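haha ok so turns out i had the wrong file open the whole time. this is the CORRECT one, sorry everyone. sequence first:
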Amino acid sequence: MAALPNDLSMVEPDPDAVHEYYAEADVLSADIQQPVQDVIKPRAYVELSKKGHCEDKGHYHYKKADPLHLDGILSYEGGYTQVAGHPSSKIAGFSTLATSVIEGLNVLDVVTADRVVAQISTVHPAYGTGQVPSVTFLGTRFDNLRIAGHKVEVDRCLDILGPKPADDESYFENGNVLDRLSQQYDRIATAAELPDWASEEYPRGQPVLNGNGTLKCSLVNRVAGAPGLSFGHVIDLPHFGKIFLGELRVVRELGDPNKGIYDKYRFHLTMIRVKMGCIGEGTTNITTAETNGQGKGGG
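then structure:
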C-alpha cells in the first residue's frame, strides 16, 4: 500500500470507496451455575453491519430492554440499546455509535445501580485519507453504583486512549497511549494486600503489547467506598466474588496492502463484569458495546 501523504486534509476521498460499518450492543448476558442454572443470552441485542459510500445518509437501530427478574438472583427494570453509522459531518469519514443502557440493576442485592451506560463513538477517515479512527466514550458512566449498600465513587478515565494520535499513528505504536496503559497496570500490580489471584492476573512488569494485536485496559482508574479489597478497576468482595468495572479491549486486525484493505480497529467495552464465587456462582456481563469499521478502495 502506498504511503499516505503528510497533509491528509488536502486529499480528496475516493468516491467509489466503501466503508464497512459495524457496531453491536446488549444490556446484559449471564451464565449462572448456582443457586440455579440458567444461561441468559445477550438481552436487547442490536447489531449494525452495513457497507456505505460517501453519499449514504446512514443506518440506525434501537431496541428497548424489557425488565428481567431471575429468581431474586439477577434483575433489572429497563434500559435500551442503539447502534448507528453515517457519514461524518466534521471530516471526510464515517461515524459509528454503540450505546447500551441498563436501569434498576440488582445482582443478589449486592451489586446495584440506578443506571449504567456504555457508549462508544468512533470516526473512521474516508479511504485514502488515513486509517486510524478517533474514539470517544462521552456518555459512559455509573449512576448510584452501590456494593453491599455502600456508595461507590468511581474515578473514570474516559480519555485513557487520549486524542487520536497525530499523523495517523496507531494507538498500538503511540508512546503516550502505551505509557498510560502501563501506569494503569502498575497501579494494580503494586496495590497493597493484592490477593494471589490478582498478582497472577496482573503481574508486575506486564507488557502492554501482548503480541496478538490486543490492548487491554479500563475506563476506571480506581474506586472508593467499596467494601472488600479494591485495586484499580477491580473489587474483590469476600463471600461474593469479583467485580470488574469499565473493561476496554482494543483489537487491531491487520489489512492486506496488496488488496487495498486497511487495518481494522475494534473497541469492545463491558461496564460491569461480575464473577460470583460464593453465595452464587456464575458470570454476568452488564452493558456491553462494541464498534469497529474498515475502509476499502473503490473499483
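Confidence is low (pLDDT under 50) at residues 1-11.
again sry for the mixup
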